[in-house]
Amino acid sequence: MDDIELKPVERALLLALMTLGGSASNTELSDHVANTLVGKPRTRMNEFGLVESEKRGQTFHHTLTDKGWARCAAELDGSAPPRQGPLGRVLYGVLGVIKGYLDVRDTSLAEFVVIARGESAPEPASADLTQSIRDAYWRLAREPQDWVLLTELRPLLGDAPRDQVDEALRLLGQVSGVHFTPEADQKTLSEDDRRAAVFIGGESKHLLAIEAR
């Protein structure tokens, strides 16, 4: 698990943000778990890079970062903090069951949360769209196995809906000779690069490489 040591209340608030879809205000957190992300816990979560917070009106709004989602995924495989009693141990047992389901289905935590919350699920990706992604890749790549940023690839797909493009990218990732990877030096990523990433296998992938046409 991540070597960042979180206090029980911080772990609870991180998981609460996850169950709310990864983004919520302090008002929503208060309604959801009778607690808010303020003071030292907020400062620590921001400094650790797990949560981004911004003041909107009179209250803070918090959003899980890629690192925050990864930490939530790690919590699924964790154990209850000390002295949490039977309910805490049972809760982490349930999280372990969810982890097993995600592994078997090869589904990311973020995708699972979207579906579980009843939010719009992506339409099945069409063969035309997956071919469009391949065509866009070869317009950008100078030779096979060149790494291409999704920031550069997505604009070549016209007005295809984001959710359908993401699903098509994930389907391509299951094909032999197609590879996705995160940017090794995260500090070089722009906000556009982060937004263009596709979430696969519990982490954001920023680069695509295809071995052959």
What do you see in this structure?
It is globular and about 55 Å long. The model has no long low-confidence stretch (mean pLDDT about 85). A hairpin with a 2-residue loop joins strand 6 (about 200) and strand 7. The termini are far apart. It contains ten helices and eight strands. The protein has helices at about 10-20, 25-35, 40-45, 65-75, 85-105, 110-115, 125-140, 150-155, 160-170, 190-195, and strands at about 25, 50-55, 60-65, 150, 180, 200, 205, 205-210. The strands form three sheets. A three-stranded antiparallel β-sheet has the order 1-3-2. Helices cover about 50% and strands about 15% of the residues. It is of the alpha+beta class. Helix 1 (about 10-20) crosses helix 4 (about 65-75) and helix 7 (about 125-140) packs across helix 9. About 20% of the residues are buried.
